[in-house]
């Protein structure tokens, strides 16, 4: 069987079929990435993708050059991958979760209504019937305690996936997430690791009211010791779910209430994405637009308008909210010299604020204009539809901002 | 009961006068719960426990049962509560705890250890009584008053002292400190600075044990978790949430309340609507037991039953140990609020002297053997101080290690490489 694997650029990550030829691993750098010796995945000779988690990273291992920031049409050699299958984002999450539960019996799920009810957004539907009530645990309404329980279970060898029915509910678990999840690996001197995944839907929905429309990424971002990722497509949802479960670090996976029914065709083969990398959505020349989660779609909508007006925006879905992928972002800034950040987070102390600071600190010399950041208003999300629309960033605002930036 | 509700200076603690508890006649004994749906009384128990207790209802009858036994055993050597070997082991462990904590106080005032240090003097019976019955694989979760729990579980005194001195040879490499004693080898899961924080973690460890047995089919997995916490914590939500979950899923955990009556300067009676904490167990469907925490033999008996229950898969138990801390809340606490009479009352019930007296009276050991143990412990503690003194401080390179189990979590730097590959990272000088 022809051994191939395809590097399609960050938009699609890696997938492979059948066995592969190790010779192929040493691809000449796609760009000047030769100094980038570390990959995020190790492909073992039996075809399994395994992550190399040793510190310091061992150079003797085989690494795949990471698939970042290449033009999407630079799809290299022809692949023999199968056509893939179409599904909705919540199904992609479930598929990823199920595959990991199948692969490792220590992976378990805890949360409210995840078992018999199948999850309030159906992400865990059918799993309790298949794996039993202990592996897919319906908890009482006690976020702080069952998150803490997940942390204790992770310390003693399990790999729990804790679901917050709505991300906002995890505010009740802030004590455990901040004090225990983030810190215990350090305060125990490295003795206990906490391979927990905390996930749930957040973001502004359709008139759900202020408390159900919260964006917790800004509150959690300061906690040392955790990683945060946000998924936005069925493809990256499945890949990030799998990567988060396999990671030895505690990972918070942010999903968005309005994105669960997005449909996409994803590969049949197994794939795992990198937690630390950003995704190039649309390469361009004039301006770098950094976004994540639902705002990606508002940006892409604005991009259509912009293209018609003659602009060429480069759109990057940062995906990794903590830590930022400074390489992808930096390479883009060095190319376009103009940055627009579009996010759904609050203006004050949000992801955009941190990102602005990070870019200014690292790439100040490459900027031709001050960084523009479009965020939601610092307002508790109102119930009324019209008001709600005005609190979040709309495509028209994005178009105006780009025009302003590119004067 | 709470007659001294409003008085501050002279707090008449009802337990100073025993009759007030005995007259209360609480309805539930060790077998606790009135809830028939969930709770199954153990089918067998040691010492005809259930029989005795069903006949005499007050919960403090457990203490009375022991008084009876002790008196009996004084006369007949066939019903001793403890063997010589066990007794000496228990004595040694308590003396280690006491001696170590006294040394901590000395070292603190000499400027060798810093921050908040909370000493366990007076409560040794609880730690020893419970932890000495555990296997190595069983887990212990504690609070900030955790030095002695770690020592009882088997963490070497050297490692604990080094940790307190902030040296790199400490059990947590100097990164945890007094309030964060962890040991993977001995299954000490901390050490938590905020009260109540450790209880969910303990519940999680118990969950893992059940998971191993039922989902991973390790049929012989019967690891038990002990969660230690104080009276102040019993007013915290996490306590109740975990009682509920543990009873609901019959987790192999024992909730041990070290009720020393004081949460810094807040008397238990001033902060709790119903101060009898053991009663909260049956409310959730688990047995609630009250025991005299100054008597290590009594604690041990209750612990045997509670740990046995958990091991057999019968679910959690709530054990309230009446105990007392001889020192202030922490080394920074001047301890001016507590009534000297109260302190004297409990000082007279020093668990170490009590055990020694019992063993000598029952001809289990001689004075000389105790002296030998005292000397041995002195040497161990002195040695631990020397070791800690001579150990190196953590070097700069340790700063950024252990933040993530997988250091890729620091992300990708502007040059395209993972930041953990940057040599400044291993030197500890990188900025994250």
Keywords:
heterodimer, A: 407 residues, alpha/beta, Rossmann fold, 18 strands, B: 432 residues, 5-stranded parallel beta sheet, two-stranded antiparallel ribbon, 16 helices, globular, disordered N terminus, EC 1.2.4.1 (chain A), potassium (chain A), THDP-binding (chain A), thiamine pyrophosphate (chain A)
Describe the protein in words.
The complex is a heterodimer of chains A (about 400) and B (about 425). Chain A has about 400 residues and is of the alpha/beta class. Helix content of chain A is about 30%, strand content about 20%. Chain A has twelve helices and 18 strands. The N terminus of chain A is likely disordered. With about 425 residues, chain B is of the alpha/beta class. Chain B has 16 helices and nine strands. In chain B, strand 2 and strand 3 form a beta hairpin. In chain B, helix 5 runs parallel beside helix 12. Chain B is globular and about 75 Å long. The N terminus of chain B is likely disordered. At the A-B interface, helix 3, helix 4, helix 5 and helix 9 of A face strand 2, helix 8 and helix 9 of B.
């Amino acid at each position: 069987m022809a051994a191939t694997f395809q590097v399609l650029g960050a938009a699609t990550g890696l997938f492979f079929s059948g066995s592969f030829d190790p010779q192929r691993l040493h691809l000449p750098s796609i760009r000047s990435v030769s100094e980038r010796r570390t990959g995020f995945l190790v492909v073992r000779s039996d075809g399994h993708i395994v992550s190399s988690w040793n510190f310091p990273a061992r150079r003797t291992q085989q690494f795949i050059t990471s698939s970042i920031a290449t033009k999407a049409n630079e799809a290299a050699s022809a692949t023999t991958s199968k056509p893939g299958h179409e599904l909705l984002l919540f199904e992609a999450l479930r598929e990823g979760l199920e595959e990991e539960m199948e692969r490792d019996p220590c992976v378990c799920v805890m949360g409210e209504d995840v078992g018999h009810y199948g999850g309030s957004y159906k992400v865990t539907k059918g799993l309790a019937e298949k794996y039993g009530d202990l592996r897919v645990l319906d908890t009482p309404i006690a976020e702080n305690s069952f998150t803490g329980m997940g942390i204790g279970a992770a310390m003693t060898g399990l790999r729990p996936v804790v679901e917050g029915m709505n991300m906002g509910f995890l505010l009740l678990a802030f004590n455990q997430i901040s004090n225990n999840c983030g810190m215990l690996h350090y305060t125990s001197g490295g003795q206990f690791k906490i391979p927990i995944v905390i996930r749930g839907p957040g973001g502004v929905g359709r008139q759900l009211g202020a408390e159900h429309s919260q964006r917790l990424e800004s509150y959690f971002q300061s906690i040392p010791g955790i990683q945060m990722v946000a998924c936005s497509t069925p493809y990256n949802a499945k890949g990030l779910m799998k990567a988060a479960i396999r990671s030895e670090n505690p990972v918070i996976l942010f999903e968005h209430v309005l994105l669960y029914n997005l449909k996409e065709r994803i590969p049949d083969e197994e794939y795992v994405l990198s937690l630390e990398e950003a995704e190039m959505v649309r390469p361009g020349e004039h301006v770098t637009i950094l976004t994540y989660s639902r705002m990606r779609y508002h940006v892409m909508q604005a991009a259509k308008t912009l293209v018609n007006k003659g602009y060429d925006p480069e759109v990057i879905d940062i995906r990794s909210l903590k830590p930022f992928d400074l390489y992808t972002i930096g390479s883009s800034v060095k190319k376009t010299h103009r940055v627009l950040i579009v996010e759904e987070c609050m203006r004050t102390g949000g992801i955009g604020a941190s990102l602005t600071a990070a870019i200014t600190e690292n790439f100040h010399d490459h900027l031709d204009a001050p960084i523009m950041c479009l965020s939601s208003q610092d307002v508790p999300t109102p119930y009324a539809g019209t008001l709600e629309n005005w609190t979040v960033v709309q495509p028209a605002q994005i178009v105006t901002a780009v025009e302003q930036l590119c004067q | 009961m709470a007659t001294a509700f409003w008085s501050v200076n002279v707090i008449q603690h009802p337990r100073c006068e025993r009759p007030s508890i005995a007259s209360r006649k609480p309805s539930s004994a060790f077998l606790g719960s009135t809830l028939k749906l969930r709770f199954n009384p153990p089918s067998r128990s040691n010492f005809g426990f259930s029989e005795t207790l069903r006949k005499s209802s007050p919960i403090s009858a457990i203490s009375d049962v022991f008084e009876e036994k002790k008196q009996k055993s004084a006369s007949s050597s066939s019903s001793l509560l403890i063997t010589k070997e066990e007794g000496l082991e228990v004595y040694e462990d308590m003396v280690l705890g006491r001696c170590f904590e006294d040394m901590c106080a000395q070292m603190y005032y000499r400027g060798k250890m810093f921050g908040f240090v909370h000493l366990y003097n007076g409560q040794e019976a609880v730690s020893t009584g419970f932890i000495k019955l555990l296997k190595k694989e069983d887990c212990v979760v504690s609070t900030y008053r955790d030095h002695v729990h770690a020592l009882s579980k088997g963490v070497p005194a050297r490692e604990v002292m080094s940790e307190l001195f902030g040296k790199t040879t400490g059990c947590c490499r100097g990164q945890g400190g007094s309030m964060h004693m962890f040991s993977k080898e001995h299954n000490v899961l901390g050490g938590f600075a905020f009260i109540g924080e450790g209880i969910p973690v303990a519940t999680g460890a118990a969950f893992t044990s059940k998971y191993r047995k039922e989902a991973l089919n390790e049929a012989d997995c019967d690891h038990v978790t002990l969660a230690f916490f104080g009276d102040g914590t019993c007013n915290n939500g996490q306590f109740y949430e975990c009682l509920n979950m543990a009873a609901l899923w019959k987790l192999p955990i024992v909730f041990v309340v070290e009720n020393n009556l004081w949460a810094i300067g807040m008397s238990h009676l001033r902060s709790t609507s119903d101060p009898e904490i053991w009663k909260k167990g049956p409310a959730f469907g688990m047995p609630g037991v009250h025991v005299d925490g100054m008597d290590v033999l009594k604690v041990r008996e209750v612990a045997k039953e509670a740990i046995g229950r958990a091991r057999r898969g019968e679910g959690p138990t709530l054990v309230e140990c009446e105990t007392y801390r001889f020192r202030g809340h922490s080394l920074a606490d001047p301890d001016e609020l507590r009534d000297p009479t109260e302190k004297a009352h409990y000082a007279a019930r020093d668990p170490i002297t009590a055990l020694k007296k019992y063993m000598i009276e029952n001809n289990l050991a001689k004075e000389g053997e105790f002296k030998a143990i005292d000397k041995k412990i002195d040497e161990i503690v002195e040695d631990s101080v020397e070791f800690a003194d001579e150990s190196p401080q953590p070097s700069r390179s340790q700063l950024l290690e252990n933040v993530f189990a997988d250091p890729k979590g620091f992300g990708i730097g502007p040059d395209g490489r993972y930041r953990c590959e940057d040599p400044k990272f291993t030197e500890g000088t990188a900025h994250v």
